[in-house]
Amino acid sequence: MAVREECHDQLPMPNGWFAVDFSHELREGDVKPINYFGEEMVLFRTRSGEARIVDAFCPHLGAHIGYGGRVMGDTVRCPFHGWQFDGETGECMAIPYCQKIPPQARVRPWPTQEKNGMVWAWYHDEQKPPEWDFPALPEFGNPDWSEPRAFELELDAHVQETHENNNDPVHFQFVHGMAAEPPGEIEFSSDGRHYQIVNHSERETPFGTFQTSLIRDSWGLGLTSVRTTGIEDAGLLMYSSATPIDEKRVHFRWLMTATRNWVDLAGEEFMNGLTKGVYDDFDIWKYKVHRAKPVLCEGDTYLGQYRKWARQFYTNPVA
C-alpha cells in the first residue's frame, strides 16, 4: 500500500551547529526576527560587533523583540517597555523605569559563533551546550581567493535527506546527468563528528590535463565543503549549510569561491554549475518519503555508513 503517511518515517530535529545568516548581511545594530528549529528567535549585532541570538519573546509582557527591538551597546532593547537583555547571558541589564530587576527577567541565549562568512547557532533538543566544533577554512579572507558568491533558498525537505546526497554517488549520474563517479575513500575523524570522502579523476583544463581530487568534508548534518585540488596553483571551493526551519523544511546557504588565477577560466562555470545542480534535486526531495530502514544493495556503501553516522546527532534517533 503506497500511502505517504504509512511509508514515511518522520525524522526529528538534529543537534548541531547551523547557519542562521550570512555575516555580510548582519550589520552593526541590526535586529532580525528569525525562525529555525521550530522556534522563534532574535538575531542582532552588538555595537562591539558580536552576533547574538536570544529567544524572541520578552518575559515581561511577551512582546516579540525582533519586531521593533533596538541594539543598545551589547544588549537588545524590547520595543514594548524598553527592557534591555544581554545577548550572551540573556539577563535583563536595565529597566528604564525601575532600578530593581526581577531575577526571572531573562531570555534564553543561544550559543552563537561567527566563522567562514556565516553566523552559526547551536541547537540541542535538550538545550545542552555545544559538544563539538568545526574549523575555520583558510580560503575565506585569503587575498588569493575570489570574493565568495552567496546563494540561498528554502525547500521542503529534512536536513538529513539533503545531506545524504553527498554520500550518494550514483544519484549524480541519474539526477544530474554526470559521468559515473570513480571509486573513492571515506575517513572518519577520531571524535566521529566529521568525515571526508575523496575521489580522484583525470581532468582536462585550459592549462593541460591533471590528476585531480574532489574532497568532500562534512561536520554534523548541516555543514559541508567541497574542494577541487590537483590543478597547480588553482582551487575551487563550495561551502554550504543546511538549517532546519522545522522538521519538514530547510534553509540552504552556499558560499562559492575560486583562486583568482582560475576564477575567470573555470571558476564561474563551477559556481554556476553548482547553483543549477541544486534545482535538479528539488522534486526528489519534495516528493520522496524517508525510509528509516531502506533496502540497500552492495553498491550503496557510502549510504549505509552515512545512516549509521547520522544517528549520533539525534537525542532520540528514529529506529
Identify low-pLDDT runs: none
Q: Beta-strand percentage? A: 35-45%
Architecture of the largest domain in CATH? Answer: Alpha-Beta Complex
Q: How many domains make up the coordinates?
A: 2
Strand order of the largest sheet: 11-17-16-15-14-13-12
Class inferred from helices and paired strands:
alpha+beta
Query: Which percent range fits the helix content?
Result: 10-25%
Going by CATH, the homologous superfamily of the largest domain would be: Naphthalene 1,2-dioxygenase Alpha Subunit, Chain A, domain 1
Note the overall shape: globular
The CATH topology of the largest domain corresponds to Naphthalene 1,2-dioxygenase Alpha Subunit, Chain A, domain 1
Biggest sheet features? 7 strands, antiparallel
Outline the fold blueprint.
Blueprint (H helix, E strand, L loop, with lengths): L3 H4 L8 E7 L8 E6 L2 E7 L5 E5 L14 E3 L2 E3 L6 E3 L5 E3 L17 E4 L2 E6 L25 E8 L2 H6 L4 H6 L9 E5 L5 E12 L2 E12 L3 E7 L6 E11 L2 E10 L4 H18 L1 H6 L13 H10 L9
